[in-house]
Amino acid sequence: MKKLVVALSTILFLSSVVFASGRYHGDIQFHTGGTSSEIYLHHNDGNDHLIEKKYDTKQIGFEIATWHMWDLNNCFSLGFVTDIYGGFGSLDSWSAGCIQDVFNNDVKHNSPISGGIFIGPAFGIQIWKLAKLSLGVGVVSNLSVVYDSNNFENFSESNTAFFASAGIGADLQLKLFPTSFFSPLIGYRCSIGIGGKCSAERKEKNKEKYSLKTESDLIFPKTGTLYFGFSFNW
Length: 234
Known about the structure:
Strands 1, 2, 3, 4, 5, 6, 7, 8, 9 and 10 form a ten-stranded antiparallel beta sheet that branches. This protein has about 230 residues and is mostly beta strands. Mean pLDDT is about 80; it is low at about 150-155. About 30% of the residues are buried. It has three helices and ten strands.
């Protein structure tokens, strides 16, 4: 943690020096794409019973991101990135039929919903005026909601699980025509969670719902998002 604080402080100091020379540039980005993740839950139910569950999901994602960079020279730049993202839907594949089913059905009853924030330092390489390759590495905060039943009306009970974890992640992005006002882009972001908390809620028909909170070993070992979108630059 101390090394991370020192690294961030150094980056902020260098950024302020370069900013003083007037070589700052930033953007606001809008993304959409597909997310594939694996949620592993391992905890004790309080009765000395070990519970292990794994949720494999494919989701449709939407994001808003902003990159703020300071040019070190004509080729390299340094700064930071912030990304707010979310997704929904449980897909068996990336086929048009599966995606259409998610939008036509009630997501709350048959699909997970997830979201999070990614923030960290970033490094960029300018390829003339044609493209810019940027890499961000930082911390990630994830929140997911998983619905166990397909349709509550046809089941005697409905189970909802809430997962929260923090971890580390990376974002690799290629932006075309970065010096223009408008730029198309494509990127890939991945993350892994370290520990976390889980709370579950169960509701039976015509009865009061009850909740269970527990500490758990919760990770997102294979979370990855392939996205494309556009940015407005300044």
